[in-house]
Amino acid sequence: MQFALPPRRNLHAPYPNSSRLSFQRRRQLKAVAILGFTLLAVFFLLSQILYSSTGTSAVPAGTPSIVLVTVLDRALWSDNYIQKIIKNREDYAKRHGYTNFFANWSDYEPSLEGSPRSWGMVPAMRHAMASHPYSKYFFYLDTHALIMNPSQPLESHLLDKNRLESLIQKDVSVVPPDSIIKTFSHLQPEDIDLIITTDNEDMNPGSFVLKQGEFSRFLLDVWFDPLYRNYNFAKAETHALDHIVQWHPTVLSRLALVPQRIINAYSKESNGAGKDGSYKEGDFIIRFFGCDSDPKRNCEKELDPYYNLWAKKLKNE
Amino acid sequence: MSMSRSPSPHPGAGWSSPGLTPGSGTSTPRSGYLSPNHLGANGISWATAKAKSDEVRGYPSFSTRNNGFFSRSKRQISATLPRFRLNTGSSPNGYYVDKDEYGRGPKSGSGRSWLPFGGFGRSMFRRKRSRLLLLLITLGIGYLWFWSVIVETYRRSSFGGGRKFVIILQSNIEGGVMEWKGAREWAIERNSIRNKQQYAKRWGYEVELVNMLAKKRYSHEWRESWEKVDLIRETMRKYPEAEWFWWLDLNTWVMEESYSLQEHIFNRLEDITYRDINFYNPLNISHPLTEGYLDEISRSPAGDEHPSSIQLLLTQDCGGFNLGSFFVHRSLWTDRLLDAWWDPVMYEQKHMEWEHKEQDALEYLYVSQPWIRSSVGFMPQRYVNSFPPGACGDDDPDVHYKEGGRDFLVNMAGCNYGRDCWTEMVEYREYSKWLNRSWWERTRGGLSGWYEKLAPGKQKQQ
Predict the structure, then answer these.
(1) Which residues on A lie below 8 Å from B8 (Cβ)?
(2) Which of 3.90.550.10, 3.40.50.970, 1.10.150.120, 3.40.50.300 would CATH assign to domain A66-316?
(3) Is the pLDDT reported for residue B65 higher than 70?
């Protein structure tokens, strides 16, 4: 504090001396400043280059943004039937620049270790993500389903931020009708990694969209855990997913429930559609839910009229 | 043993498991809906447990620490201090050098900020010799008295990096009504806590004591020692600035207080960790995974090989994973792991097998869920978790504390079973003191040893 005011005798200090000193000093300072600045700039540039080379992985050109995943069980279904399914989905993917990933159920048979066949969809999803590491969204659609409105791109129909925001169902029971676990009411579209629907009884994994990333690996691996597969859930992977979502908040916080008809409308022969969940003309997708498990029903027969409808529409375009 | 589907959590009743109910001896019908707050014999209700835990586990949203005037201003002062030179090879100006403080600090850049007033001092010197002398003496005394305080304050400040680490120390095991603690148990607890607090104070870390008091909540849900997971999660919420959380069992002793976590482990993660469990694999886990549907990183033996992807850092003893001393990193991955760690469906099927509870569960998850493997790193045990000789199998030199090896930490694992925890702790405490004695004690010891050699008879007489 004692130097707040310069002592009086400093006023009589020899001026030329001090100004010469300060001139030299100034030059030195200038040099140092310039040097320092250059070094900083170089360092900054270098770090930018290094950061960008490790921080972002370049996406190769022509990478499809969306991959449609289907599990084909060639042992159970006729080739004719499977060809129809493939045709329907290939057409849709071609229109919008997506890609199809057709997985063979038999590839996953050893990993299933005797659990019900329907579990095959979980490793299939993981497989699709491993084969298309740069694609962002993976749309799983059950075999027994048709895309009825192929002109509808998935982005504007479901994935765009504003569209998704308007579709998210907040604060509703995740497992109908009355689970006390409800979807979060503060969900933002950018937090969402899993988009799925509920039918009358469960969260239905026959049609859902999963975003590639750490979360997807986490979810699929937990879902496929041997202890779930051995638990004899009556509805196998469906009940396992119900369970995971209800008991693990890290999954619930990434999940968006959307109205059933957006991606999962049930045909009129199918039981268990949720409220306003049955197929109506113009809906994006029709699912023949349960046609494979109910011995009285026949998937191939149920598919045909809708397939013909779709084929006719295609011809007219 | 199993249900057709897993029940949803619903109000008034917890996880109901028909497979377990007969065995657990409670066959009373559910009373859940009648009174939501009633802790029936059937299990604590989901909603009340949650409310209760918020109440019990809650901590005030304001900080109760650092409220005193001195600690507050200390923090402010430290935030405006220049960067100190913490480590010097040669003492800068011939001052007395405290061997304990010097030469062991983290290597920070060299700087001459020590004497910022060189020229100024010279002019002063001619006229105000006495004043300078006074200043020097003041500085000298200040240095002797306050230097370690300044360094510690610096490390604790936001520049020092000490805030990144929190030590979670379990305490009060089986306290409460379950078992009266004896004098030895109290002494173990006091000593162990003091040891960690001293260590943390030196490096600016935080110690979070977590109370392992047997709680009805956990006993009811058959998850007695699973509170570890909850406690880690709570501690993460309590210290939002911290990055790494170090879980420590009570029966541990920091042998080398002069090792900072940064220097000892985190600055050289790449060199001291191994991701490929085949390096040391007592559980014979088949690694890497070979399933064709997995992505490349999940199938690679060492994950992505970047040390930055390690989120859980632990050691293995001769019997597998050891959770007596391990690190978790704050991240989404960790949130997910802590969330997946306890799952009623898995627990219901395995609780009879999983003797070591959360440790076995973690091993199980590691084996069965590929997403976990790619973010787990292992360290050779003796970096943070040496066992006392003989605690685990034969004399494996990679497992047990070696005298003269200057291991960082001793974990007296299993001392509750047929060994004496207190005696072991005292032994290690004294040995650690002896290893880290000051230069003065060293010279004195050396002199007396020399003296003993010269006149062995006299020493014996004494």
Answers:
(1) 175, 179-181, 242, 246
(2) 3.90.550.10
(3) no
